[in-house]
Design goal:
Layout lengths: L3 H5 L3 H14 L4 E5 L2 H9 L2 H4 L4 E5 L4 H4 L2 H12 L4 E4 L13 H6 L3 E4 L3 H10 L5 E7 L4 H14 L4 E8 L1 H10 L7 E5 H7 L5 H7 L3 E4 L3 H16 L5 E3 L11 H10 E8 L3 E10 L8 H5 L14 H5 L23 H4 L4 H15 L1
Parallel strand pairs: 1-2, 1-7, 3-4, 3-5, 5-6, 7-8, 8-9
Antiparallel strand pairs: 6-11, 10-11
Helix pairs in contact: 2-13, 3-18, 8-9, 9-14
Amino acid sequence: MTLKYLEEYRDAGLAKKYAEHIARITTRPWKIMEACGGQTHSIIKFGIDRLLPKSIELVHGPGCPVCVTPMSTIDAAIELVIRYRVILCTFGDMLRVPGSSQDLQTAKAQGGDVRMVYSPLDALKVAKAHPEKEVVFFAVGFETTAPANAMAAFQARQLGLENFSMLVSQVLVPPALEALLESSTSELDGFLAPGHVCAITGFQAYESIVGKYGIPIVVTGFEPGDILQGIDMCVQMLERGDARVENQYTRVVRREGNHEAQKMLETVFEITPKAWRGLGTLAASGLRLNSAFRAMDAEFRFGLNPESSEERTGCRSGLILQGALKPDACPEFGKTCHPDHPLGATMVSTEGACAAYYRYRYLTEKKL
């Protein structure tokens, strides 16, 4: 075991002090879930889970938007490319996420026009440059990416780009946390909420979860010091029997969030049921283009009807996204499933839990 990355962290001493304080105040076992893929990668990279007493278990939730995009939506994107011959613009992480029979990278190799972009506004440029082609932007993400994607639709309407549409897979974090707590197998004691999401939404949406389930939630940043302080704040509440929302990420997050971003979301999107990989279809857990922008909805425009698809045999990503299984406990991990041959989205995405374990645990410890 090595804490090489933590030793190189500029505030390593402060991070260790939080870990020592957690060890001093902990009197019983607690299970805390982080709901952000960026936090998961920091936890594994810096060995944060190994700094904590064994009575504190960190579990990884559905915190990666690429990972929770259902297989049926990947199949819909491939159908747009192969059947309808659109130009599909997407972020790079989506290229190798498995559909039911292939991925977008394979569709591209077969002649499909799949283009990697860094912003939804890049997709608008493609639509302007190719008025003779239908251009679809694959809009994936949590509340963090939703304002920029909404702005793209808003600008497309202003520019009169009739050849631009969006395949929308925008999901909302609070309903997913509620679904996990409603599960009969849930043993969660607390949550670390994603700071980047709350920078947009604020954290008032999490207060109803605390009130309903009596579970503490700490809005947390992404550096080792942030995460350990967030865990410390959560454990303190658990130890004194307190349950409320606390904000560790005060340098970025306010209770009310970003009003301008929220206004843009309300202008373009509406709340809808949404399918999640590993969690199923959850009520009021996603966004879709509202009636004013419905003509830009690729599902509506092309008459798509994505059907649910089963995960590939051997892939346990659903259990991993539920926090019910650690990546290195999967029998396929590091054997039949690895970055060069991923069985599921959690091994593909840069925010996936399996990818984090493979990069920072499996490869490192295999060399020892």
